[in-house]
């Protein structure tokens, strides 16, 4: 999977350069793996601005302006929080045109019937000529903690590439 992640990282860089944009990240369950995959690519400083690892709810609130009400109502692992994380990262990184956010339960513990181990919520926000567009999606990945986190990085990059390619 690492070869695919590397290829996606190269591709998102090409798309961002084509769209004259920069990228920012807001990570929880991936703990910097997404930013690490991006910055593993030589020349990524031309299209990667910055990233946050906001593992705690307090960090999500203070660093990314995720609302306490959203955290209380939906929980940290939710599409609502992922969207607010992406929007917050975009607001804190004025040069960025695209923000990617991850929040989930990588395991092995922490899952519930409603939110099983492997559940990851993704937020995507981008600046357009019409304002800010935000999307989110939730996925459940199989495997151990490492596999869930790697799958999350892969999915985030692939989805972002698809979104950028569609415009």
Please give a quick description of this structure.
Helices cover 44% and strands 23% of the residues. It is of the alpha/beta class and 167 residues long. It has one domain (22-142, 157-165): Maf protein (Alpha-Beta Complex).
What can you see in these coordinates?
GO terms for molecular function: hydrolase activity. Keywords: Hydrolase. InterPro entries: CinA-like_C (IPR036653), CinA_C (IPR008136). This is Nicotinamide-nucleotide amidohydrolase family protein. Residues 7-159 form the CinA C-terminal domain. The protein has 167 residues and is an alpha/beta fold. It has one domain (22-142, 157-165): Maf protein (Alpha-Beta Complex), CATH 3.90.950.20. Helix content is 44%, strand content 23%. The chain contains six helices and five strands; from the N terminus they run αβαβαααβββα. The protein has a five-stranded mixed β-sheet with strand order 2-1-3-4-5, sandwiched between helices. Strand 4 (119-128) and strand 5 form a beta hairpin. The chain is globular. The protein starts with a helix and ends with a helix. The model has no long low-confidence stretch (mean pLDDT 97).
List the helices and strands and how they pair.
Layout: H1 2-18, E1 23-27, H2 33-39, E2 48-53, H3 57-64, H4 68-74, H5 79-92, E3 98-104, E4 119-128, E5 131-140, H6 145-165
Parallel strand pairs: 1-2, 1-3
Antiparallel strand pairs: 3-4, 4-5
Helix pairs in contact: 1-6
Give the proportion of residues in helices: 40-55%
- Write the element-wise H/E pattern from the N-terminal end onward: HEHEHHHEEEH
**Counting H and I runs of at least 4 residues, what is the number of helices?**
6
Q: Report the radius of gyration as a whole number of Å.
A: 15 Å
- Tell me the structural class: alpha/beta
What fraction of residues sit in β-strands? 15-25%
CATH architectural type:
Alpha-Beta Complex
Oligomer kind: single chain
- Main sheet attributes: strand count, strand direction, barrel closure: 5 strands, mixed
């Amino acid at each position: 999977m690492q070869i695919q992640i590397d290829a996606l990282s190269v591709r998102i860089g090409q798309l961002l350069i084509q769209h004259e944009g920069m990228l920012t990240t807001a990570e929880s369950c991936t703990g910097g793996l997404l930013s690490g995959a991006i910055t593993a690519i030589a020349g990524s400083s031309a299209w990667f601005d910055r990233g946050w690892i906001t593992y705690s709810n307090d960090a999500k609130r203070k660093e990314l302006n995720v609302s306490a009400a959203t955290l209380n109502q939906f929980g940290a692992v939710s599409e609502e929080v992922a969207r607010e994380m992406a929007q917050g990262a975009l607001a804190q990184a004025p040069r960025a045109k695209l923000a990617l956010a991850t929040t989930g339960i990588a395991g092995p513990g922490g899952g519930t019937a409603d939110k099983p181990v492997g559940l990851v919520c993704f937020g995507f926000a981008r600046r357009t000529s019409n304002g800010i567009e935000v999307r989110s999606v939730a996925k459940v990945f199989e495997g151990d903690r490492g596999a869930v986190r790697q799958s999350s990085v892969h999915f985030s990059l692939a989805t972002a590439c698809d979104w950028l390619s569609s415009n």
